[in-house]
Amino acid sequence: MGRKIAWGLLAFLVLSGLVFYVFAYQWPPVRDPALTMPDGDPAQGRQAIVKYGCSSCHVIPNVRQATGRVGPKLEDIGRQIYLAGVLPNTPDNMIRWIMHPREIAPLTAMPELDVSEQEARDIGAHLYGQGSVRQSRPGHGGSGGGHSPR
Q1: How far apart are CA 39 and CA 34, in angstroms?
Q2: 31-128: what fold?
C-alpha cells in the first residue's frame, strides 16, 4: 500500500511539473517586438500603411483614421498565432502575406498592391511594434519570438 502512495505522489509531482513548464514557458508564445521584424523600420512602415491605404480596411493603432471594418483589427497582430487564419505568424510569413495575399488565400478580400519586400518588412515592423505584444518575462530572456523555451 505504501508503494502505491509513493508512486502516485511521484506521478502527481511529475505531471504537475510538466503542466507548470508548459504554461509558464511555452504557452502562449512570447514575442519580443524589437526582434520580431529584423531590418524593418516602424516609422517607414507607418508611412507605407498610409501610402497603400491599409486604413480603409483595417483598424491600425497609431495610424490616423485607420478605422476600416473590412479586414481584421491589426492592433494585436503580434500575439496572433496565425496570419490570415492559415500561416504561422512569423516575420517571413508576414512579409509574404503583405506582398502576395492572393497567392496564399486566393479568395481573400485583401488586394495585391505591389508592395516591395522592404515596404512589407517596414509595415510588419510597425504592426509588430504596437505595444500589445507581451514582453519577455524577467529572468526568462531569450532572443525573440517563436515557441522555444525561455
Answers
A1: 10
A2: Immunoglobulin-like (2.60.40)
